[in-house]
């Protein structure tokens, strides 16, 4: 019984080695080993995976209006990231928990890449107005993206 399990495990490791782990490393980079967990913003800036679904929590910083929404900087204790949203009611200082998709905008200047990661907001899961004490700033475990 033990020999069969060791043999099955050896085959699994061999298949992983043949197929590579690039996709796995990107998923682990953004999502860790616990899907549904709120991600630190620094992970978005240091990982190169786009189109990943993430949950972020933080404070609304600088904002810029757009025709059909706005972009705002979301800040947590690890960093900041720009968020594209259709919600025009957010104010600086609001606390939000969002579900979004990581995107990358490539900008080439003088032959050098100056692009930046941003998050396209898919939904706001929680929101607390600036100055309100009804928002828990600690990352939490959530069940599903």
The biggest sheet, with number of strands, parallel, antiparallel or mixed sense and barrel status, is: 5 strands, mixed, barrel
Q: What structural category arises from helix and sheet content?
A: alpha+beta
Q: Indicate the multimeric state.
A: single chain
What is the percentage of strand-forming residues? 35-45%
Contiguous runs where pLDDT drops below 50 for at least 5 residues:
4-25, 30-34, 137-145
Please give the alpha-carbon distance between the first and last residues.
Answer: 38 Å
User: Can you give the helix content as a percent range?
Assistant: 10-25%
Q: Per the principal axes of the C-alpha atoms, what is the gross shape?
A: globular
Mean pLDDT over all positions:
75
The total of helices stands at 3
**Order of strands across the widest beta sheet?**
1-2-3-7-4
Order of helices and strands: HHHEEEEEEE
Radius of gyration: 19 Å
The number of strands is 7
Outline the structure in words.
There is one protein chain. By secondary structure, the protein is α+β, with helices and mostly antiparallel strands. The protein contains three helices and seven strands. It has helices at residues 2-19, 22-31, 41-46; strands at 53-66, 69-76, 79-85, 95-105, 108-109, 112-113, 116-128. The strands form two sheets. A five-stranded mixed β-barrel has the order 1-2-3-7-4. Strands 5-6 form a two-stranded antiparallel ribbon. A hairpin with a 2-residue loop joins β1 (53-66) and β2 (69-76). The longest helix has 18 residues, at 2-19. It is globular, with a radius of gyration of 19 Å. Mean pLDDT is 75; it is low at 4-25, 30-34 and 137-145.
């Amino acid at each position: 019984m033990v020999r069969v399990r060791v043999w099955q495990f050896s085959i699994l490791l061999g298949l992983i080695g043949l197929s590579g782990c690039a996709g796995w490393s990107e998923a682990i980079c953004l999502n860790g080993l616990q899907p549904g967990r709120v991600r630190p913003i620094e992970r978005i800036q240091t990982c190169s995976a786009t189109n990943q679904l993430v949950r972020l929590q933080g404070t609304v910083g600088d904002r810029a209006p757009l025709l059909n929404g706005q972009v705002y900087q979301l800040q947590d204790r690890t960093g900041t990231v720009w968020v594209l949203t259709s919600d025009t009611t957010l104010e600086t200082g609001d606390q939000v928990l969002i579900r979004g998709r990581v995107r990358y905008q490539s900008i080439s200047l003088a032959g050098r890449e100056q692009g930046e990661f941003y998050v396209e907001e898919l939904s706001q899961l929680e929101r607390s107005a600036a100055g309100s004490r009804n928002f828990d700033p600690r990352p939490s475990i959530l069940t599903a993206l």
